[in-house]
């Protein structure tokens, strides 16, 4: 008995050292204001988002579980499901769900395998991302394999059978909680003298019985180059180029081929960053739903924060943009402060339509685990959508 007790006492510390549990917790409260032509009322949405969970690791294994809740603190907005159709849409409905539950194995040479409900961010999130600006993020029920060798070769392969959308548990129709199907994401990249070069494929086969979702089934193949070159001791040139071709796939009732093109260049010098870019989501000769689409992207990140182009118009989209940003370190009591301003000019890819123009501005200040963000979007409509102003004030704390 004494020997057994001693053995148990000696074994417990060894197990404790081999097993680590890391808590996961973040809180975000945000007020979003929307003034949009065509609505009698302005939207004022105040919402609280809370995530909590833990990751346990032992040897090569990691188990992560995380719940997520979004709570409206008022109801002066259309969440998509609350019956407030007289207000502009703010896509943050009330929600309570299992956000992530994944098992990961890191025992293979330079390879990580992750299975379960997980967050997937691929490169700049233009084709696959988590829509992290929304209170309820997008996750995937999937199996993912990632490989990286010391010389820089990276391979990333994912099969997903369900996309857990931003709409949450009350989602229905084209705004449902989960969109089942067969999704394949593949990415192969390697550093070169001109920058990191990657080839990618995104295959979307949605099998939900909703026509609008059938039309999102597509096959996209592309290449991306991103890099930086020194201009002097104090400045560097940054650049990115991406081209992709997309065609209808599986249940999509349309027959189309459209192309995507991104060209971007920037200069960074000290705290300053200047960027000029042009992004084209091309259009085929069809009448509708034949322009280049990226339904699994972090869409709010691209083509303006007014969110007028979450779905590319039938005639495609050409977005010419310029931005300037500045970053302070250890100023005014904050660890960092970063203001930025961006201008967009939107045109169609065919028929020569001038959709409109947009200004975006942001300032974010960080102090320890706290981040405070103020953000603005102003869309001036010409031949697409309606004049819209949006403003946000957000406070976030993350452990």
From TrEMBL:
The lineage of its organism: Bacteria, Pseudomonadati, Pseudomonadota, Alphaproteobacteria, Sphingomonadales. InterPro entries: Alginate_export_dom (IPR025388), Porin_dom_sf (IPR023614). Residues 57-246 form the Alginate export domain. The keyword Mitochondrion does not apply. Coiled coil: none annotated. This is Alginate export family protein. It comes from the Bacteria. Keywords: Signal. Residues 1-16 form the signal peptide. The keyword Signal applies.
